[in-house]
Every structure is written in C-alpha cells, then in structure tokens.
Amino acid sequence: MKRISLKNLLFYGFLFFLIVFLILFLTFPKFLAFDKLLLKNGIYLTAQRVDETPISIRLKGVEIYNQNSRLSRFDFLKVGLGVFKIRLEGYCGKANLLLEISLWEKVLRAKDFTCLEGMEGLSAELYIKEGIYGNLNIKGIKAQGIKLDEISFDFKGRVFTARGKMGGINLVGDGQIVYNSKNPLRSAINGQVSGGGIRLIIGSTLERIEIKTQ
Length: 214
Prior knowledge:
The chain is an alpha+beta fold. The protein contains 2 helices and 14 strands. The radius of gyration is 22 Å and the shape is globular.
C-alpha cells in the first residue's frame, strides 16, 4: 500500500483550498462586497449600471456620497481586484483619478480632475503609509464665500507646507496632520496660510478639506 507523505498531504491540502478560494472569488458577487466595504467607511454609492468580470467591476453614471453631502461623480468607475490590492480608476470626461489600496500603502493620483464637489480641479500624487506624503493641488475652492484661486500642499508624513493664491495675492503657511490609520482619508488636518493681510484657516479632513477666513 502506497503511503502519502506529510509533505504531499500539505501540498494537496493547500491546492484544494486554493481552488476553493479561486472558485468563490470568481463567482461571488463582487459589487456587493465592494458596496459593503464603502458602507463600513461611511460612503454611499449609486450607479446607473454595473458590469462584473471575474477580476473587475465596471460602473457607469456613478455618484458618491458621505452622510452629509455628495462627494463626487464619475462617468465611469472601474474597480480592479488583485492579490492583496484593490485598484479604483474613475473617469470624468478626459480626466481620471486613480486610487490603489494594498496591504502596504495607499496611492492617490489625479490630473486636473474636475468632478469633485466644492472645487474646480484636483491634481495629486499622494502616498499614504503611516503618514501622508506627496503633493496635492486644488483649484477654485471657496472659503466662506470667498473664492481661492488655488492652493497646493506638500505633505511630509505628519506635517505639511502650503501655498495659495487669491486675487493675485500669494499665501504661504503650514500645518499638522492627525493621522487616522484605519481610514487615512479621514485624517484630520489643521493649519493656516497668510499673506497681504489675509489669513485663512485650513481644517477638517483630507477627504474634505475646508478653508475658512479669519
């Protein structure tokens, strides 16, 4: 009688569980899992159409909300599922926004993205890993009814420097980040920029930056 070695037993056991996992992964309704993940983080999504492939979800006519208001809209939103990684690509006209979430870091990239509420345009190159690093530029944001032409942030972990422009006046300043490891986009930020007799307070969260006059 032929004996099965412990090594072979472990190999076949691993192979069996891998096959079961792949079957469940390829057949499970991925949009339901994705929607549940968003709800867990206080984000609500509506879509005119949802199409699924074995490794991706494609949504058309997407609107995203938090508990208080609409955050953004997308003509198309594609969610790619990989090993230990989720990749979200949002398209608005010719511009796109990319968010990659893995076990190691989160990456946000955008170029002249115009479909976020409360601003005319967003460009970003951010890396999130036990802190926030990179650059963020916002155009056409309002501060208590006063329009700020643009403001740029240079994030360095738990601190940042900022430069802005309003009505031809240059503003400079800095601030701090209270990092939220469970939900980095909800990390609290506080700081200020000033120049030419103007002083603006920067607050709220990275998800929804608010600028107020003082």
